[in-house]
Specification:
elongated
Amino acid sequence: MTTDPSEYEKAMPIVAAHLAKIERAVERTRASHSGQPYAAVHQAFIEALQDEDARSVVPQVIEELARQISEAPSKPGS
């Protein structure tokens, strides 16, 4: 089975747009919840993904990113 290279070219803008939504949700959650308890970060991240309309994010990816944000040191003055 051979994949048509044009299919890749068609899909890349869609994939890039989806990844940009996830990145915005991560940055937003990191800015507001860095260093906070995992449960709070997880919930905030899910809400940020919903706000960005970022669907189809693998649950394990959500959990890992929430864990990383939770374990990151909070910013001074936060």
